[in-house]
Amino acid sequence: MLPVRLGPFELIIILVIVIIIFGVGRLPEIGGAVGKAIREFRQSTAEPPKKSEKETAAKSETSED
Fold first, then answer.
1. Alpha-carbon span 24 to 38, nearest angstrom
2. What was the pLDDT predicted at 18?
């Protein structure tokens, strides 16, 4: 896998392309969505997986039989 290094020039080019595609008005929406996705990803990798209610109910039904 090749290491990806983004310098200031590359970031400016990416920003210009994003502005051309989505427009200036939608940038706050896109930034908020990206930030929320990153936050949720970090939380999901940091927290142990939670058991769903269906799994808990299925286990309790099988243990009662």
1. 22
2. 87
